[in-house]
Amino acid sequence: MAAKTMRIQQYRSTIGQKSTIKTVVKHLGFRRLNQTLERPDTAAIRGMVAKVPHLVRIVEDSSN
């Protein structure tokens, strides 16, 4: 059984954001702008993405 994953992309910079917002983006694994990552579709990752919807978007949600 394959684990559910989702692809997320950072489309805006963290310049000028609070340090807590920068930390969330860093812990998601982003290193540069317009980077796309594949992460497990868990409640923790969804919560982190929900904290920074103005910087990060869900590109693809493969919930097979």
What order do the helices and strands come in, and which of them pair?
Elements: E1 5-10, H1 19-28, E2 36-40, H2 43-51, E3 56-62
Antiparallel strand pairs: 1-2, 1-3
Helix pairs in contact: 1-2
Fill in the keyword field for this structure:
64 residues; alpha+beta; Ribosomal Protein L30, Chain: A
Mean pLDDT: 93
What oligomeric state do the depicted chains represent? single chain
Q: How many strands in all? A: 3
- In the CATH hierarchy, the third-tier topology is known as Ribosomal Protein L30, Chain: A
Strand order across the biggest sheet?
A: 2-1-3
Number of helices: 2
Evaluate the radius of gyration: 12 Å
In short:
Helices cover 30% and strands 28% of the residues.
Description:
The protein is α+β, with helices and mostly antiparallel strands. The chain has a single domain, classed as 2-Layer Sandwich (Ribosomal Protein L30, Chain: A), CATH 3.30.1390.20. Helix content is 30%, strand content 28%. It is built from two helices and three strands, in the order βαβαβ. It has helices at residues 19-28, 43-51; strands spanning 5-10, 36-40, 56-62. Helix 1 packs antiparallel against helix 2 (43-51). The N and C termini lie close together (9 Å). The model has no long low-confidence stretch (mean pLDDT 93).
